[in-house]
Structure formats: structure tokens, C-alpha cells
Amino acid sequence: MRTSQFFISTLKEAPSDAEVVSHQLMLRAGLIRRLAGGIYTWMPLGLRVLRKVEGIVREEMNRAGAIELSMPAVQPAELWQESGRWEKYGPELLRFKDRHQRDFVIGPTHEEVITDVVRREVKSYRQLPLHFYQVQMKFRDEIRPRFGVMRGREFLMKDGYSFHTSFADLQREYDNMYATYTRIFTRLGLAFRAVAADTGSIGGTGSHEFHVLADSGEDALAYCPASGYAANVELAEAVVPATPRPAPIAALTKVATPGKEKCEDVAAFLGLPLTQTVKAIAVVRAEPPQGTPAFTLLLLRGDHELNEIKAQKQIGEFRFAREDEIVAALGSQPGYLGPVDASDAVSVVVDRAAAALGDFVCGANDAGYHLTGVNWGRDLPDPGTGVDLRNVVAGDISPDGAGPLELCRGIEVGHIFQLRTRYAEALKCCFLDENGKTQVMEMGCYGIGVSRIVAAAIEQNHDARGIIFPAAIAPFAVSIVPMGMAKSPAVREAAEKLHDELAAAGIDVLLDDRNERPGVMFADMELIGVPHRIVVGERGLAEGRLEYKGRRDAEAQMIAADAMLDFLK
Ligand code: ATP
Ligand code: MG
Ligand code: MG
Ligand code: MG
Q1: Ligand 3 mean position, distance from CA 153 (Å)
Q2: How far is the CA of 93 from the centre of ligand 1 (A)?
Q3: Most C-beta atoms within 10 A of its C-beta, which of 83, 184, 347, 377?
Q4: Going by CA atoms, what residue is nearest to atom 28 of ligand 1?
Q5: pLDDT digits (tens, 9 = 90+) for 281-317
Q6: Per-residue confidence (pLDDT) for residue 200, from 0 to 100
Q7: What pairing do the DSSP bridges indicate for beta strands 466-467 and 130-139?
Q8: Cα 142 to the center of its chain, rounded Å
């Protein structure tokens, strides 16, 4: 490929609303462009990455014995009414009417549709087991789409569904998928961890999530090095026995939830009015071992949806190290705060916040209240809200009693479930067994967030100059940057020859023939994360050599031109 025949559109600066590094870099590198909240166009360069992820997922699913099909995005409401999820799913389910006033949804997931297919097609135990999968755009009307394609509303998912005559056979396939997912994320070149997970609104019994490890991850994970026990903290909180907490030595977090009287108490106490938009206020005080204590005032809009805590929307945040900064910020944000007297606001807010934190220590985790002891540097605050809502802290003994738990953050990129008969029963998906007796099928389901993986990979692999794609998913494996190609026929010829040679060897090569200044071409190739770069210049050519630099290398090195292909392999 030549840049002149492709489309590269990079930006010097990321738009200011891009909060996490992967979102910033995906915009800067021109991988995606925003159409609406949580809805993105995959630009040609980004699409190449997406397709590589998809390709690896597809190869491993096929190898594992799953069979690909493609189901409609638009699904009739009747199926969702049959499963009971029409009522249960909540506003994440995008519903609409057709011209005949019939209800439809845009599929956030496909348990209903696949179960409908299988109940019509499969009659006998002889046809089972079966595992169907697809790679398809899903739509979830996320309450807070954010971080670009990390939490989009429209996003690409691989979703698979397996059907079995017995629980034992479902467990076999579940183990098969666990191994398959492990292979997929290994091939993708990502640092990941599988953790036991809550089964959430899909229901069912056994479940594991696969997380790409990254500090910016929305999920907190608990891990016990002594035994390998690993769980999403959501789940660990339910099973880890309550241990007496040491007194929080450094910091406290308090969140008042809306609609509860205590919220108003806190507001009154802090002297801040609750308005139409500000329905909850949280004050976070953190005292690092070194430096000045920092106060964070969070103004939350609590649209209570499925999960009370997760659904809290943060609509404003002021994070300060110094009191005078608080004054300035309070003064400049009257819309959120209402009429606050800036002159004494700081000391009032800070004093009251500190006092309030002291007062409410005993109220931890009462209804309408969430208070967690946080030790600076030991626990990690939620990157989105800055608030820590966990009960499980590092050092707690793991449920298996093997040793202390460590905590880290992860991005959920895969999720496997034993659904058992949850859907098959509701939709009457049955088969005839050896004795001619009707039985309900056992089901499993297996999701991978294909588009989220692209963001997660960048979150884990980048530096100050841009993306460092793992080789398996890089848009191009090698870039060729010619020096002064317009003026030097020798350079042009050598660059073209090298391009053709590498392309013929099946290497994804990008020849930058834009005739830009070298600095511009270098910066772009680094920004978009091409793992290998070859510079073709007159001086090197005179000695029969090319300059090579790996994306993570500190220094370039000279390689004999005729040895380059072998070197890259
Ligand atoms: P999350 O906890 O992040 O909301 P989920 O548990 O709701 O995800 P699943 O129903 O398990 O998601 O869907 C399977 C996979 O689809 C997830 O593991 C994740 O990788 C991906 N996914 C889910 N929601 C989104 C989204 N809004 N944007 C991008 N990928 C998503
Ligand atoms: Mg979700
Ligand atoms: Mg989840
Ligand atoms: Mg999940």
C-alpha cells in the first residue's frame, strides 16, 4: 500500500473531550471519527485494525468448532416479551416502532434470536451440541457512552451461543471457550486476566470475564497470587468475608445518592444547593504521603438505572491541590453550584467537607450512602468519577483462604456465561432425547468486544509519540519512509522495489510516498503505531544499506538492503 492511494488523516491535538489516552490517540491517528455520542465511523486505517482483531477471533472460533452465521440487528419485540427481557432490560434497550406501529428493538445481544432459530431447526439429541456465533454491530443505549469506542453505543461484538443435551456437555464447551479466549487474547498480544464474574442481567450460573489490564479500566479486579483466585470485585464483594478494616489512615470517600434524605443533609451541611442538574454531591479528600491534601468535589446527576452506583453520572468535577484554585473554579462554575459566595466558599467547603467526612465515617454503606476507606496508593479510585465504591481492599484474605488479595484495574473485553436453561425454558427450546422424551436444552453464551479491544490494546501499548500496536493487529506491519524521493530517482526506485518485495512476501507494508518533510512522515508513522520503520536514503543506499527502527527501539540501526526481508521475518 502507498499513502497516496490510501487515506491517512492525523491530528496534532486530540479534541479536549477525549478523556483517556486510547480515545485521544484513536482520534489523533485518524482511526475513528465521531458521528454522535457513542457512535463512530471506522476510518480506513482503524478498520484495518478492527478487521485484524476480528480475523483472529474468527479463526480461533472456527478452530474451536463454532459455526458462523449472521443474525438481524433488528429484532421483533415479541421475542423479548417471551423471554421476559422486554420489561427487565431497561433503557439500554433501544426500542422503536415500524410504520405499522409494531414494536422492535435494535439488538444489544442475541440470546432470543438464536434460541428462536435453534428451537425451529433442532429437534433431536443427534443434532446437538451446536455452537453458533456471529460478528456483528450491537446497539446499547449506554447511559454514559465514553472513552470513544471503549464504551460506545454502537459497537462490534463477537457473540456465540451453544446448545447442549446436558449440563456436563455445556461445561465441556465452557472450558473449550475459556481455552479459546485465552488463545485469542494471547494471539492479540495483550496482557490480560480471566476473572470469575457476576452473571448480571443475562442470568445463569457460571461466568468468567476476560480483562485487559490497564489502570484506566472501569472494572476493579481482585487477585490472589498464592492461589490464582481472581474475581471481578463486584463478585468478590459478595463472597469475601467481611474483615475488620484498619482505620482509614489517609483518605475517605463519600457519595451521597439522590432521592434519599441524607443527600440533602450533606448538601445542607456543605452549604451547596441541590439543583435540577446537581442531585448529589460527593467530596473526596485525599492525603498523599507527600504533598498537599487534595479535595475533589464531585457533582453528580444520579439517574438511577440498572445499577445504582454505576449509573451515577458525574456532571462536574473540581480537583484541587490549593485553596485558591477552588475559589477560582467555584466562581467560574456558577451553573453547577448556584449562587455560591466565592469569597468564603473555599474555607467553608473544605472545612465542612472535612468535618462531614469525620461525621459520616460511621455511616459507611448505610442505605443511600457509600463510604469507603481508601489508602493512598493502595486502592485505586474509579477513573471516571474519582470515587472508590469498593468494600474489598487490597490485603483482604481471598475467599479460598489462600492469602491476601491484590487489586488492579481491567477493561472487560470478553465474557463467557453458563446460561443453563434460562432462555431455552422461556422460549421452549427443546429436543427429543434417546428415549424420545422432550427435554429443555442447556445453553452457554460467549461475547467478545471486538471494537473495545482496539481501544484496550492502545490503552496498554502507547508512548508519548503515539500508538504502539501489537504486531498481530497493527494496521501496517512495516512503513517505508523515503528521504527526498521526489529529487532522487535512486531513492524512489529502491523504495518502490522494497515495497514490492515486502508486499510479495505477504507483509503489510505502507510506503509513505506523500513527499512530506521527513519529520512529518516519521511522526505520522509513529502516531499510527506501525511496528517497524525503514528509512530509504541516498547515503545508506550508496553503501547498500537501509535504516531500520522498531517502534519501541531507542536507536535506529543500519541493515544490508538485501537482508531486510529476512530481518523482518
Ligand atoms: P460492561 O460491563 O463493560 O458494560 P457488559 O458486561 O455489559 O460490558 P456483555 O454483555 O458481557 O457486556 O457483552 C460482551 C462484551 O461486549 C463485553 O465483554 C465487552 O467487551 C463488549 N461491550 C459491552 N458493552 C460495550 C460497549 N458499550 N462498547 C463496547 N464494547 C462493549
Ligand atoms: Mg454493560
Ligand atoms: Mg460487565
Ligand atoms: Mg459482561
Answers
A1: 15
A2: 14
A3: 184
A4: 151
A5: 444 443 343 444 444 444 443 332 222 222 222 323 3
A6: 58
A7: unpaired
A8: 13
C-alpha to C-alpha distance for 415 and 197, rounded to whole angstroms: 8
Share of the chain residues as helix, strand and coil, in percent rounded to the nearest 5: 35, 30, 35
Predicted local distance difference test score (pLDDT) of residue 289 = 39
Radius of gyration in angstroms for the set of CA atoms belonging to the chain, rounded to a whole number: 27
- What's the burial of 43, exposed, middle or buried (CB within 10 Å: 0-12/13-18/19+)? middle
Query: Of ligand 1's atoms, which has the minimum distance to the CA of residue 414?
Result: 18
Q: Work out whether strand 130-139 and strand 294-302 pair parallel, antiparallel, or are unpaired.
A: unpaired
Low-confidence ranges of the chain (pLDDT < 50): 241-263, 266-267, 269-390
| Rounded Cα gap, residues 318 and 309, in angstroms | 20
> Which residue has a Cα nearest atom 14 of ligand 1?
447
**153 Cα nearest atom in ligand 1:** 27
Nearest to 278 by CA among 256, 262, 294: 256
Compute the C-alpha angle 395/398/400, nearest 5°: 155
Interface ipTM above 0.85:
yes
Distances (CA, A) of 184 to 60, 177, 190, 228, 468: 7, 10, 9, 20, 19
Give the pLDDT of residue 427: 98
For ligand 1, atom 23, the nearest C-alpha belongs to 449
Give, using CA atoms, the residue closest to atom 27 of ligand 1: 151
C-alpha 447/C-alpha 222 separation (Å) is: 22
> Would you call 140 exposed, middle or buried from its count of C-beta atoms within 10 A (0-12, 13-18, 19+)?
buried
Distances (CA, A) of 152 to 80, 128, 157, 217, 443: 23, 35, 11, 15, 28
* Segment holding 147, helix H or strand E: none
Three cell numbers at 387?
470515587
Q: Which residues contact 392 (CB under 8 A, 6 or more apart)?
A: 220, 222, 233, 236, 237, 240, 405, 407
Q: What is the pTM of this model?
A: 0.77
For residues 243, 209, 416, 92, the Cα torsion angle rounded to the nearest 10 degrees is: 100
Residues in the chain: 569
Q: Which backbone phi and psi does 479 adopt, to 5 degrees? A: -110, 145
Q: Which residue has the cell 425451529?
A: 120
For ligand 1, atom 26: residue with the closest CA: 151
Phi, psi of 406 (to 5 degrees): -105, 155
C-alpha to C-alpha distances, 212 to 95, 118, 229, 266, 414, nearest whole angstrom? 32, 33, 17, 37, 9
- CA dist., res. 120 & res. 474, Å (int): 42
Ligand 3 centroid to Cα of residue 173, in Å, is 21
Whether the CA torsion 507, 513, 519, 523 is positive or negative: it is: negative
For residue 17, the model assigns a pLDDT of: 80
The binding-site residues of ligand 1, defined as CB within 6 angstroms of any ligand atom, are 109, 140, 142, 151-152, 155, 157, 412-415, 447, 449, 451-452
Ligand 1 pocket test: which of 20, 32, 157, 413 has the largest number of ligand atoms within 8 Å of its C-beta? 157
Burial of 515: CB neighbours in 10 Å, binned 0-12, 13-18, 19+ = middle
